[in-house]
Design a protein that fits this description.
single chain, alpha/beta, Rossmann fold, GMP Synthetase, Chain A, domain 3, 17 helices, 29% helix, 23% strand, globular, binds adenosine monophosphate
């Protein structure tokens, strides 16, 4: 027997309809690529999203077609998303930090018909355009006054493009399971794989991330997603903020410490989110200038493990709560968030501190398990490492155009490629990517644990640990560090700093100081390149 309740499909455009109707005047502030700050509201943003939809329909874009965006976080990018999904087409967010060959690969793979691009990327796209045969039209996210001369065929300024239509348009009524967004994983090996989000998965995911033990968004919040829209829906904030009626502040191209600080302070931001490298830069700026943040209440940190030293600085020194989160493109992306359950409060401040450094608990709609290489479940004892596998309402089932490839196990779980422990209270701790874990004498050493500890040393700005082949132990850890400005980390001193904090056999066999640690397009340490750089390196213990 079916229930007798209304069918109300979970569609993305209902999010912007809701924000425009119930929170119409709430501010949406953007740092424009052209320079100045721009202010609008959810009501106005929805009007313009409708124009985008109408214009796309006029240009012959149909349900299921892919429309690419190569853009920073700003109001035009956001309204374009709602407009694209609003006619049943698919917004395909292209990460501009990918290598040009990867951009060509994913855009040709997606067969994008239109590309909306920010001014910053015009020179790049002019070079790539001859190799993008499916793109019929280039729309530059600017107005006529800022539209440069360009060799792109049929290029038009976005404001002119939508200026030719009115907002008298009805959203398409699509199935809630219809594709809405496409985001390719920035895999460090192999070809990027397309994760195809549905309206339903995006809406459910946003509802989950709004909850109090997740991002805890309210209509009183002012949210600054530093995390780009092109990085898995800016961790859902593109949907969750309007759904909560929270104000949005978008940083455009200026992502350096001083610019983020200025925006957080001048716009009275209460909640923000980004990868650790952004926060290293912000904290360095605040330390150097002796400044404080007077409005910020919560900072979500994820994408890579957040070192406890960063959590401590935010919480103890500045009184800003850290929400350590983990996830991946295939999970829309949020898979876990660290909130304190009553079970751990009794353990005292040290226990709470240790819990805060974990990647946290599964929110509603995420199920997980850890298994050995043989696929058998391992105990949730907080000590045993295993492959972390997940299933849920916003987890990928297949990759785009690789539908014949099975990516789930017999129980329907997806292998995240991460190695983790799960404890009896449900806290998950990532110890490594499965390909980065260091195998020493048949046991596993967590490179993430060592990196987190090393950045607690006063002279270390960033740390990476890789396994170096060893004749006796198979692999042993090498610690690679970047110095804090004005310091010179001393090997003996850093190793002494680690010694009391770890098991003896986890101690790195050596340390080297480098000018820079390579990063992926989504800000993670690029271990493949680092391993390559040190492929001829011989440990002193070998
Ligand atoms: P992406 O799909 O580019 O978002 O990358 C997902 C991967 O980033 C995960 O599988 C993890 O390896 C890593 N990751 C994300 N968040 C965290 C975190 N909080 N701690 C450790 N690793 C993380």
């Amino acid at each position: 027997m079916l229930g007798l309740m209304q069918d109300w499909p979970l569609l993305i455009h209902k999010v912007i309809d809701y924000a425009a109707s119930e929170h119409p005047g709430r501010a949406v502030v953007s740092r424009l690529t052209e320079g100045p700050l721009h202010r609008t509201t959810y009501a106005a943003l929805r009007e313009r999203a409708l124009k985008v939809a109408k214009r796309l329909a006029q240009d012959g874009i149909r349900a299921g077609d892919r429309v690419a965006t190569l853009a920073w976080n700003n109001h035009r990018h956001l309204e374009a998303w709602y407009g694209i999904a609003g006619i049943g087409a698919v917004y395909h967010t292209v990460n501009p930090r990918l290598f040009p060959e990867q951009i060509l690969y994913i855009m040709n793979h997606a067969e994008d018909r239109i590309l909306l691009l920010d001014l910053t990327f015009l020179p790049l796209v002019e070079k790539l355009a001859p190799q993008l045969p499916t793109v019929e039209r280039f729309v530059v996210l600017t107005d006529a006054a800022h539209m440069p001369e360009t060799s792109l065929r049929g290029a038009v300024a976005y404001e002119d493009w939508i200026g030719e239509v009115d907002a008298d348009f009805r959203w398409a009524e699509v199935d809630e399971r219809a594709a809405a967004g496409l985001c390719y994983t920035s895999g460090t090996t192999g070809e990027p794989k397309g994760v195809l989000y549905s309206h339903r998965s995006n809406v459910l995911h946003a509802m989950v991330t709004m909850t109090p033990d997740a991002f805890g968004l309210t209509a009183r919040d002012i949210v600054l997603p530093v995390v780009p829209l092109f990085h898995a829906n800016s961790w859902s904030l593109a949907f969750a903020a309007p759904m909560a009626g929270a104000s949005l502040v978008m940083p455009g191209p200026k992502l350096d410490g001083p610019s983020i600080y200025e925006l957080l302070e001048s716009e009275r931001v209460t909640m923000t989110a980004a990868v650790p490298t952004i926060w290293f830069a912000l904290l360095q700026h605040m330390e150097a200038t002796g400044s404080r943040l007077n409005h910020l209440q919560r900072v979500a940190i994820g994408g890579s493990a957040c070192p406890p030293a960063v959590i401590d600085t935010f919480e103890s020194k500045y009184g800003i709560r850290v929400i350590h989160a983990w996830g991946m493109t295939e999970m829309s992306p949020v898979g876990s968030l660290c909130a304190i359950k009553p079970e751990v409060v009794g353990g005292g401040p040290e226990a709470v501190r240790a819990i805060k450094a974990t990647q946290g608990c599964a929110p509603f709609s995420v199920e997980w398990k850890i298994t050995g290489d043989d696929g058998r479940r391992l105990p949730n004892d907080g000590r045993t490492f295993g492959r972390l596998k997940v299933r849920g309402a916003a987890v990928a089932r297949r990759y785009y155009k690789r539908e014949d490839e099975e990516i789930l196990d017999a129980e329907g779980f997806f292998d995240t490629g991460d190695v983790a422990t799960l404890d009896p209270n449900g806290y998950m701790r990532i110890t490594d990517r499965s390909k980065d874990v260091i195998k020493s004498g048949g046991e596993w050493i967590s490179s993430i644990d060592l990196e987190n500890l090393a950045v607690g040393h006063p002279a270390v700005a960033e740390a990476a640990v890789i396994g170096i082949p060893h004749p006796k132990w198979d692999e042993r850890p090498l610690l690679v560090v970047v110095a804090k400005p004005g310091t010179r980390p001393d090997k003996a001193d850093v190793l002494e700093f680690l010694r009391p904090k770890i098991a003896k056999w986890w101690m790195p066999d050596d340390m080297v100081v480098v000018d820079e640690i390579p990063h992926t397009a989504t800000g993670k340490i690029l271990k493949t390149e680092l391993r390559n750089r040190f492929k001829d390196y011989r440990l002193p213990t070998a």
